[in-house]
């Protein structure tokens, strides 16, 4: 291996609209380069799979080149290639998997096909060092909302709960549309909410007291739309700031409540939050308050590592190399519904 | 070494072409040494391009006893073809070429099918003009018109089978799928592309090029080719970029749907 005894891992992520290429040496971050096709999706109000897949094919080689330049490395320095094998958009995943296989085959280095959700957990090591074992992870984005028990991110991840309908980030997008805010909705709602009151409207909290660790955001989204329509029908003004703040409060209340319930139920003292919604400022504040009250340590990677990226895939790859896990074969499929129990394929 | 020495104007003295195509239900890979197809692997499975291609490449390298780093050019079919599979081949070509420092080229998949009709001994050798048609799904075909096995005169395009130009023989899976529409007597030639034909086509073209010409070709945009002269002049090699022919399906949304009646 190059220079030190820690392997240099190239990570490739194409499960949604970001073409992410990351490079790590062990758990030292060397590069995290991202090409996003978000601008091309914005006018459609959501990610268009075929648009994303086309953009991945265009962006992959330049993004790999950019990551190598940022890390000051050549392709031949790479010791292993890791790639998101699922879950995600099938056509988009396939571009990344094809690229990763070709890089691994061409360089003669091992390939690791990994689970996108486990990678969201593993990425925190790049910022906060080794993961406590076990940890509870709350992963929230436009594509997923999951609570995980993580005894060992390289080997053993257990699903405790997930959304039964919309992902949390999806609810942000849909409510943003109702309020006339742009796509993706998360940052716009966060911004609008700062001027409003989280208690202005008592929106419903789905599955709040049902005893499960699952989420539901579909009812909330509909309730917001209904509330706005009723005000408009009555000719009353709608405070975008108050609706945004009250909606956001309902989402983060449920997310943090269930995350801390999971910590209590499994007697785990470390909570990790990842995924694009982890960038939400109110989620960070409320999670910290509730963790402090419960004596739970909170870990949230910086926003650039929370959203989908290649460094998270490389980070998990580094765990797999260190654990001596067998590399993936060159015939692995891209699996759009890869279960979280399958950390690597 | 593939590129003949240093300096300008030198010709490729030796070609070792690794070619593959994933633009149709066939996943096909081959190695060509400038004279012959040394090894070839073809599997027809429309749903597993992503799984089958890398092992197929390893297989042809093993069968031919060639190391990947000795390959002088990588060539992939650029379609047109159903996009998900098509991208597997092109992404693989681009990434693989980077690792070995060789150029990656694209060849229109329909050209490779056409080329196979001119190879003696191939089933369905054709004399004279013909069409190539492949399955474009949605009851349409991707097609092109050829003057002979190496001369594309029109296309590639996407149309309904009953809109194809009349009378000429039709080669490829599109002909077989729509034999009733176009007339069973017009069905001719091979059904799927073969990477052997793709590699042979590319190797023949590469052998006559200078290093500079080859480099320039790898960046050549895929333009409409509308005459025999232009086709001959341009050759068939281009950059490894997909020919989609259709825009992505996506609708710009209107106002949000009301949830109250
Ligand atoms: Zn994600």
From TrEMBL, chain A:
Q: Where is the Gcp-like domain?
A: 29-314
| Location in the cell | Cytoplasm
Residues that bind substrate: 139-143, 173, 186, 190, 280
This chain's function reads: Required for the formation of a threonylcarbamoyl group on adenosine at position 37 (t(6)A37) in tRNAs that read codons beginning with adenine. Is involved in the transfer of the threonylcarbamoyl moiety of threonylcarbamoyl-AMP (TC-AMP) to the N6 group of A37, together with TsaE and TsaB. TsaD likely plays a direct catalytic role in this reaction.
Q: Which family does it belong to?
A: Belongs to the KAE1 / TsaD family.
Substrates-to-products reaction catalysed: L-threonylcarbamoyladenylate + adenosine(37) in tRNA = N(6)-L-threonylcarbamoyladenosine(37) in tRNA + AMP + H(+)
**Protein EC:** 2.3.1.234
Name of the molecule in the record: tRNA N6-adenosine threonylcarbamoyltransferase
Residue positions annotated to bind Fe cation are 116, 120, 308
Q: Which organism is it from?
A: Sphaerimonospora thailandensis
Cofactor binding notes: Binds 1 Fe(2+) ion per subunit.
Source taxonomy: Bacteria, Bacillati, Actinomycetota, Actinomycetes, Streptosporangiales
Its principal location? cytoplasm
Per its UniProt record, the required cofactor names are: Fe(2+)
